[in-house]
Fold this protein.
Amino acid sequence: MTTSTSDAASRFSGRQQSPLQRLQGLLHSYPWVSPLVILIVSFIVFTILNPRFATAGSMGLLFQQTAIVAALAIGQTLVILTAGIDLSVGAVMVLSMMVMAALAKDGGMPGPLAMLIGLALATGAGLLNGLLVTKINLPPFIVTLGTLSIFTAIALLYSGGSSIQASHLPDFLNVLGNGFSIGGLRLTWGVLLVIAMYAVVGFILSQTAWGRYVYAVGDDPESARLSGVPSKRVLLQVYTVAGLLYGLAAWALIGRSGAATPNAYPQANLDSITAVVIGGTSLFGGRGRLVGTLIGALIVQSFAFGLSLAGVNQQYRVLATGILVIVAVGIDQWIRKVK
Amino acid sequence: MAPTKLPLSVDHIPADKHDVYAAEPILSGRDLRIQWGHVVGLDGVNIDLYKGEVLAVIGDNGAGKSTLIKCLTGAYQPTAGQIYLDGKEVDFKRPQDAREAGIETVYQQLAVIPALDIASNLYLAREERRPGPLGSVLRMLDKKGMAKRAGDSVRDLGIQTIQNMNLAVENLSGGQRQAVAVARAAAFGSKVVVLDEPTAALGVKESGMVLNMIKQLRDNGLGVILISHNMPHVWEAADRIHIQRLGGCAGVITPASHDMGEGVAIMTGAKKLAQDAPA
């Protein structure tokens, strides 16, 4: 390169920017920075409000409380990265969980087999969402609004509306609620499974061609297709993989809650979307990082946990979460205007 | 079996172009016809493109220039006629077939992904993996290698305003985005690059940059087809100009043999080209 060019380039990159513009540029490149700042600040505030917040025991509990929504939010992130939305996350998880538990208890199946069938069912549910989106070209919002009702109804009809207690289930289905302690920090196998899920899906998104296709399809499906990306196939795969992840969350939920309950976790859909949005992933698709979703899930749960430790009315958590969602989407709109 | 060369319709070939036109055409279409019901899209068009030339295709709206190009790049299949690449008859079922054969198309709507960086865009759907088990088992992308080779491709086209291959395309100007699209075509188009209205959305300075890239592609030995409505750009960049009119070819001229006014007159049917009389 000639010196004149690199001079021009350095002058270009070194041109005067206001601090606000620099911040905008930073957030644009690293959308998970703002949620990370919020998480750290809330940790500090909650520790000041009640020093018990910062203990190893509290952290272990926080991780266990976060695990399920964090697991669901992985699939939700994949779908939202393609500019879609999945309202059926909770319904798929509950249906899968009820099938796992009923097959083991009433069908007398060994735990691993019941788990695998439940996992396959959740994958099939995701595939159904994907087929409706890609083959019939229905908007994801409508498709998953419909399957939300369908899967919820099937779960209730299938279970007869009654729960199955953990004591009636084989150990294998409960194992994710067990764990071990490191100096007061209690970790369950469920928490470790969710961390592993983040590692694997995060690796796929950032290091493989398929991960790039997910972003490309979400950002501009027509350009992606013209570039040779099999847009429809990628979309179908995203919904299917999301279903598989919800199935793993179902397994973890049995261990976490000590029972399979057909009306478990009713706010799962909105919590998963909240975690993704607070984590800096754009609802318009093509933008965001999986690590942001994990931070977003931790923020939501640490608000719940910290405020209850501080003895504050739980409604303030709901209030604060609502404000955070609007602020997060506002920040997203702002950083998308970066030039 | 290679087709017979068409008459060149070039009165005076510049000395440095004799080799270009002495060779066999890289891409040829013979008697290409396309018909949808009663509508005739192409009415027996012949075309030759040589390595190392820029062949512009001009014509009024509905004259069949896009249809012609889509036949040559696999987006449409002609109802009748033959296409030859490197002297061999080819039958493209899909755009991917043409791409795999070495014909790259830069679409009017750019086909770049704003959220992805430049290197990712250049290698989109053609990603290269790391060597060894990291690539074959874990399917890890060779990000560094792709960024380095992307930089080489961009520099080969004489583009100096793009330095950082890890910059998201949305940070680039319209001309720079067009440059990325052209660089991708240049990096993978081993034989022919087709550009559909590459300067339509650009300002004066950026158009100049893209025209220079087009000349660079030609000088690198590729056959270039340029579709454009912008006559000054065509007269600046083209070696020969194929004029489409009413689904047929109204003639092939050069910027030296005819001026813009005459070209437009032939395009609109106000004037007929004497040599156009069928042999």
About this structure: The interface with chain B takes residues 1-2, 5-6, 8-9, 203, 207-210, 212-213, 215-216, 218-220, 222-224, 226-229, 286-287, 338-339 of chain A (CB under 8 Å). The beta strands of chain A are 164-165, 179-182, 185-188, 259-260.
